[in-house]
Write a structure and sequence with these properties.
By secondary structure, this protein is mainly beta. Helix content is 13%, strand content 51%. A 12-stranded antiparallel barrel has the order 1-2-3-5-6-7-8-11-12-15-16-17. Strands 9-10-13-14 form a 4-stranded antiparallel sheet, with no helix packed on it. The longest helix is centred in the first third of the chain and has 23 residues, at 2-24. The relative contact order is 0.20.
Amino acid sequence: MFEKTIIRRSLGRPWLVLASIIALGVLVPLTTVAQVPARMYWKTLAGGNAVPLIVTGASGNTNPFDPALIVAPGGNVSATTALVGYVRTLSLFGRGATLGILEMVGHVSGEVDVAGQSYSESARGFGDPTVELCVNLIGPPAQINLVDAFRYEPGFSLDLIADLAIPIGEYDTSRTLNLGQNRWYGRLGAPIVWQIGDNDEYAGKTLSTDPLFQLDVHLTRDVTERLWGALDGVWYKGGKASVDGVEGDELDNLAVGFTVGYHINDNLNLSVGYKSTVNDSDPGALQMDGFMISLVAGWHPIIEGARRLKGED
């Protein structure tokens, strides 16, 4: 009797949380158009699965596919992307964790100026696939069963995140705008993004960048059981780029935006986000605005089994 009561009380809300966390948690590609959504680090039941479809778009004075955020003063670049992937929630050494792999496709076009030379270009195809592991270090232990999920209470937590992008995406050595980046890059601890080595085939030049620091802040609130919203803020710092030894400016920019999430049903989650830089009046400042729409289908063997048991009762 006690077990059935737990199943009834746990069946709805934990699965809604599972769907939203898988949608907003690990699935954040290492690109300018990607914004770190609110609630992305909420923990959920181990053993869950999800397949996302995320559509993003952006315009501004930098290549949205390049995490180096290389500013082209006076440039005008736009991009549209679609991202698909697979995510698995799990328990690692007794701590909550997620493991995911994503692949991005899309189109980018625009006019940029590099080292005094102007380019008008476009590119389409596949970007660099990314693998990400997120492990909780401080906070409640991993949720192994429905009882753990039912008793879970959000609080302070600290996670370690490691991303690695594999440089096999579309890349043309004669272009400055590409979907692939022609070098290994990643994110460690989120929010530090780094590029491993230089790109010595950047339109016949050598591109190098410093690490980029990114701080995300969110004020989030439930509107109903299924609908929630958030106000988002982002600070970019560092990431100075140089082309053939000619250094650009270090980034020091702010962006604001919002995120709205809605749990369509127990297996589908929809979220919409928008972000735009605000202190960007200087020609050398980062100027970018972008949106993200994600639809994620998720499932969990325990939740599905509990649903069947509830239907048989």
